[in-house]
Amino acid sequence: MNDYAIIDSQSPPRVVRLQPVLGSAPLEPGLLPAALPEPLAHWPEAPHPAAELVWVNNALSWLDPRSLEQMKADKNDEINAARLAANRGGFMFAGKLISTDELSRSDIDGTNGTVTLTGDFPAGWPGVWKTEDNSYVPIPDIETWKLFYAAMSAQGAANFATSQALKAQLALAESPEQVEAVAWPS
Question: Taking 60 as the threshold, does the pLDDT of residue 11 lie above it?
Answer without folding.
Answer: no
